Amino acid sequence: MKPASESELSEMIRGARAFLIQGGGTRRIGQTVGELLETSALAGVELYEPGALTLIARAGTPLAEVQTILAAERQRLAFEVPDLRKLLDREGTSTIGGVVAANASGPRRVQVGACRDALLGVRFVDGTGAIVKNGGRVMKNVTGYDLVKLMAGSQGVLGVLTEVSFKVQAVPEAEVTLMAERSLPQGLADLRAALGSPYDISGAAWIAGRAMIRLEGMAGSVAYRAGKLRDLLAFDTAEADWSAVRDVTLFAGRPGAVWRVSVKPTEAAPLIARLGLEAVCDWGGGLVWLLDPTGTADVRAALSGNGHATLMRTLPGAMSVPVFQPESLAVAKLTAGLRAKFDPRGVFNPGMMG
Q: Between these two residues, 278 and 154, which has the higher pLDDT value?
């Protein structure tokens, strides 16, 4: 099913059937059942005001279209959307609604926040077929329920997004990457030192034996900050491909399960040592990607409750492991209450997220 309008989508949802919600099919993880409901026909940029740094688009708009429109005005989505198609062995076209549903955020999150932090407003259809709008065109404090933040990362289980609005960012004048060969523990310690400095880091990653630090902004400011960090950490200026970190291309096309782990940066190196797995670290160690060639590593047990692990890719025939981190009883009660409120008949992505 592929509704061409918000009203048509609302009518479809009023029927008593289960739906598998999909934008471009490039980011969905977890098991679900139901009739495929695609939002790709709900497409088009509805408003773009470069001077106000504001963009509004229908949820099925291809991400690439949004990025092209912004690039023409030397602007961008600040949160640096990952492209995980190669990692997850997917085809298809990523949509802006899918980006929001996954709260997809890349290396620049350490500086500007996640996708949800750039969202100004959303429109969606809930499980009763009601059309809901929340937020607006400017950043402001909200009272009551902040549905904008709630919908970001909800994986389509609370409603079907039809429109999203963003605060966008000007492309900076200059960008510099500093790099050094480092062991994992020393590299992550250096990244934490850089993030704790006053030098405004926009990327802090460790990959394939190298620690990487990115700075962006006005040319004079970038040069000054880079010089201070070179002196502080003994890093050198280098050419770097941040898409390798953003898209985890090191693990693409290689056999094995892939885990995405959120953890305290100080806990990243000990966790990786306990598991003995190959890793890519972003956000100064706050985000850890792990490649498990056999699919047998007990990542959640190694976390000992001090983190959050999502099984992004599994092996055929591997042991059955929940894709999403099991919730505590208190959180599960809150989650169930939200789903009962927004999708009382359980028609959206049944079976996903527990």
A: 278
Enter the DSSP assignment of 50.
Answer: G
Instruction: Outline where DSSP puts E strands in 70-159.
Output: 75-76, 119-125, 131-135
Looking at domain 249-313, its CATH architecture is 2-Layer Sandwich (3.30)
User: For the whole model, what pTM was predicted?
Assistant: 0.92
Dihedrals phi, psi of 110, to nearest 5 degrees: -65, -20
- Contacts with 165 (C-beta within 8 Å, 6 or more apart), sequence order: 47, 54, 55, 56, 57, 119, 120, 121, 122, 135, 136, 137
Is there a shared CATH topology between the 6-170 domain and the 174-246 domain? no
How far apart are alpha carbons 93 and 42 in whole angstroms?
A: 14
CB 213 within 8 A of CB 194: yes
Residue located via tokens 């782990």: 261
Which CATH topology does 174-246 take?
A: Alpha-Beta Plaits (3.30.70)
| Among the listed residues 53, 69, 62, the one whose alpha carbon sits nearest the alpha carbon of residue 25 | 62
In 3D, which of 187, 170, 194, 199 has the Cα closest to residue 281? 187
Residues pairing with 291 in the sheet: 258, 278
Helical segments of the chain, H only: 6-14, 63-71, 85-88, 96-102, 109-112, 115-118, 147-151, 184-195, 219-233, 242-246, 265-275, 299-303, 329-342
Gap between the Cα atoms of 196 and 138, Å rounded:
30
pLDDT at 147 over 90: no
The DSSP-derived string for 227-280 is: HHHHHHH--EE----HHHHHTTGGGTTSSSEEEEEEE-HHHHHHHHHHHT-EEE
User: CATH number of the domain at 6-170, please?
Assistant: 3.30.465.10
Residue 139 pLDDT: 47
